[in-house]
């Protein structure tokens, strides 16, 4: 008998296709951290395995948060009065700068990790700060908690305050030291991702060096793209020889193709930029709560999703005010209605099953076979307690999911990542 195998019982909801919500009541088998089969009745061959019995509870794939800033979690829910470029200078850089002190970082990251652990999220692509040792500390905390995915040491050598800026050569040396420190699986489940913060904060020389490291180490990359109109104008001034923002990354090999790549926001991409995103298989992190709070705009996420771009959701804490991806799902639906009403009648608003697709199968694809209850997929699952949301109405599982997305705090009662029960 496989000693790590177990059976999980409940009402399984997932999205095998965009907009399709599949509902199956019964038993799922986990073997070696992987989804190994589903059966409505308990097969005799599974009877010897431990049974985790959540009869009547909704069970969803663990969610993927494709974009968030761990050191900004401390001021989450405040600093809502400025747009991006002023917001960064006034609130973000001062707090992120404090993470130079590893003790301070450990305190902030420990709290962040605990709250993330008890959220719906099992997979992440995180921005840390430019400090190598603090970033390694975050990777250790996440790995020990069982959260999986990517963490990036930032690269920033211009247009930021002296107390929070690297010199280019030193930054590249630190990036190499960081890659070496996590090159041999020192932080199981947690991998490094190259992270030029965004083009205004990273010179061409630094980008070029990061592109070389990406090829040498075979490492993914992430950044921000076309989030804010002033930002886009600034990039065109800083990089006059580019035709559109994405070229400031792609010309150095930091825009997908060879290695996985995540770009946050993508609200104002011109057609050529869209074409490159698609051609290179870049993942779009749709961050609707952040786009509201820092008044960035409304992404054409419905079009991206329905036209077959790779797209997932990002909490973008602390531009976004919550780690709760159910709230981000609801916001994705809500802002898509405003976009439909005010600017674009060609795309009907998103639905909750479409938002769930982005939160699970869509974003999960960044991490391999993640985000579905199908054979061969990583066994990432969350069990929801929605007892407080039930009443005299006979809600279907789809309606229970919808109510959970709009009304709950998004904290599951049990959670599994790659077959490990996290709580
Ligand atoms: N662009 C560059 N840095 C940031 C950040 O920290 N948050 C957001 N929302 N956009 C950015
Ligand atoms: Fe961001």
Summarize this entry quickly.
The protein has 423 residues and is an alpha/beta fold.
Explain how this protein is built.
- A hairpin with a 2-residue loop joins strand 2 and strand 3.
- Helix 3 (132-145) packs parallel to helix 4 and helix 11 (325-342) crosses helix 13 (397-407).
- It is built from 13 helices and 17 strands.
- The two termini are 24 Å apart.
- It is globular, with a radius of gyration of 21 Å.
- It is an alpha/beta fold.
- The chain has helices at residues 84-97, 102-117, 132-145, 168-181, 204-217, 229-238, 247-250, 271-279, 288-293, 301-306, 325-342, 352-364, 397-407, and strands at residues 6-17, 20-31, 34-39, 51-61, 63-69, 121-127, 148-152, 154-155, 190-192, 195-196, 221-225, 261-265, 283-286, 311-313, 381-384, 414-417, 420-421.
- It folds into two domains: 6-62 and 371-421, Urease, subunit C, domain 1 (Roll), CATH 2.30.40.10; 63-367, Metal-dependent hydrolases (TIM Barrel, Alpha-Beta Barrel), CATH 3.20.20.
- The model has no long low-confidence stretch (mean pLDDT 98).
- The strands form four sheets. It has a seven-stranded mixed sheet. A four-stranded parallel sheet has the order 5-6-7-9. Strands 11-12-13-14 form a four-stranded parallel sheet.
- Bound molecules: guanine and fe (iii) ion.
- Residues 67, 69, 224, 264, 316, 319 line the site of fe (iii) ion.
- Fe (iii) ion (FE) is lined by residues 67, 69, 224, 264, 316, 319.
